Amino acid sequence: MSITFTRRHQRDDLLVYDFNIERDPFVVTVTASPSVVHRWVTSIVQLYKHIINDGIAVVGLGVQFSASPNTRYTVDTMQLCIGEQCLIFQLSRAPNAPRVLRDFLQNKGCTFVGFWNCLDRRMLGLSRHRLRMRRNPVDVRSILGNKVGNASMESIVERSLGYFGISMSWNVIMSNWNGSTLTDDQVVQASVEPRCAFLIGAFYGAWLR
């Protein structure tokens, strides 16, 4: 599996990466800035307004969370992916969540898709910014049905997309996602998961679920 990425742009309030998975290019924006998120979501809604209006927009969704000795699990990042654009929003570092993001999560024209995501809606609702989703996100496994059973994400991606060697590191999953700067391994993992969910959801018509 060939996953390559380069840092295209850096400012105090964001990092932008160019990613490529097996000749599939996409752009990842990492930020804790509500204004950056506002611009990202606004541009996405404008760019994909036709499929959103038609009710067939698919958005890959992922969340990363961690636990401290004094608190329950808290959402640290939320990842969104549609078309060739992905966003990693560092929720636990953000002062607020913009209204446009809240509206996007409630948009009837968008179907959110992820892996093993039965708790994502609840966790986002319990996050410090109380993000509400209109409905539970669709689990990729429910789209593929009996084809995958209890297969791992790696196996699902291999069968559905032909991407061999995608792996989710448990050490990265259990790492600290509340840092001011995410590590390269964290950025890769937080990008690949919603990207693959988006590709599978779009190909198999997740909006029909």
TrEMBL record:
Keywords: Hydrolase, Nuclease. GO terms for cellular component: cytoplasm; nucleus. GO terms for molecular function: 3'-5' exonuclease activity; nucleic acid binding. SUPFAM superfamilies: Ribonuclease H-like. InterPro entries: 3-5_Exonuclease_domain (IPR051132), RNaseH-like_sf (IPR012337), RNaseH_sf (IPR036397). It comes from the Eukaryota. This is Uncharacterized protein LOC113852235. The lineage of its organism: Eukaryota, Viridiplantae, Streptophyta, Embryophyta, Tracheophyta. The gene is LOC113852235.
